[in-house]
Amino acid sequence: MYIILFIAMAISLITLTTGFVIYFMKDEVRAKRFKKLSKYSTAVYAGLIAVFLFFMIPSFAGAASATDSSSGLGFIAAALATGLATLGAGYAVGAVGSSALGAVSEDPNVLGKTLIFVGLAEGIAIYGLIVSIMILGRL
Hints:
This protein is an all-alpha fold. It has helices at about 1-25, 30-65, 70-105, 110-139. It is flat, with a radius of gyration of 22 Å. The chain starts with a helix and ends with a helix. The model has no long low-confidence stretch (mean pLDDT about 80).
């Protein structure tokens, strides 16, 4: 039931967004409105996904372990630890990597120093993986 509702919401939002693209891209004034509208549409879509996952987490936790629901929540915690740490590492590497590339293009002698910063940003994902391994070890 929830899956069908989720798919229907996703299809309707995609259809509306595509329709707005076709309508608003005819004119510069409309294009500015579309950019603002697309930000709101993305926020609403992300909110709907968050609400969907919030209501589905109890069934995911119950499906993960038939005997103990706390272990199901442990699996969810391990997945969140790894996933969020990886997202943070990706954001950090993107910011640091682009800055490092600009610095190296100006002065090639700073390549070793910039690699250290990129490695530190990548370490965030490793910390998340270690935390999830520790969580899974306690289950």
